[in-house]
Amino acid sequence: MGPSRSGGTFSGPACITSRREISAAGQGAMNDDLDAIQRVLAGDIESFRRLVERYQRPLVTLVRNLTPHDTDYEGVAQDVFLAAFRRLAWFDPKRSAFSTWLFTIARNRCRNELARRRPVVGAELPDVVDPRSPERAASEAELFRQLDAALHALPFEQRCAFVLTQLQGLSYEEVGRIEGVGVGTVKSRIARAREKLRSLLRHAAEPHS
């Protein structure tokens, strides 16, 4: 499978998993997750497909936001699902939701991907027919490009906290469990990320000779 290029993190709204998407199923989704996990552990391997179908999109979105643009996003997501499958017997529902546990594996996998190679700066714009005016499309494309570059300029811990809360819709407590830090540290990282993003975007908007 070749690299999946979507034009970068902020190539459009489809790249952002909304808070409503994350929380829509609520307790029902958690119960369904536990049912699927119990079935898998009892030997019904096909039940793991339910978990993959539920979390495929938010997981790929997270990978896309935390790794360089030439990353094989879907390949990394598949690696995360495989790791989760292999470790499923060690998942403890008393400590966290399955989604939190899965995103923890994904976060660590993305960090390893960044450590393995230098990030690639810049993003390719998607080659699609845009129904908007050329001027508006170009303006929005440039804005997404600037947002994408600013996000990827953040330190990994700040970017991860920002993405998980602001784009993925997780709570501070959930992100704290994923990051292995307290809620206060999560809030601090998000505040620093916002400040740095504002600074980077202001700089990008300034005219340069």
In short:
This protein is mostly helical and 209 residues long. It is 65% helix and 0% strand.
CATH architecture type: Orthogonal Bundle
Largest sheet: none
Order of helices and strands: HHHHHHHHH
Mean pLDDT, all residues? 79
Tally of DSSP β-strands:
0
Distance between the termini: 42 Å
The outline comes out as elongated
What would your notes on this structure say?
With 209 residues, this protein is mainly α. It has a single domain, classed as RNA polymerase sigma factor, region 2, helix turn helix motif (Rna Polymerase Sigma Factor, Chain: A), CATH 1.10.1740. Helices cover 65% and strands 0% of the residues. The chain has nine helices and no strands. The longest helix is centred in the C-terminal third of the chain and has 23 residues, at 183-205. The chain is elongated, with a radius of gyration of 18 Å. Mean pLDDT is 79; it is low at 1-25 and 119-132.
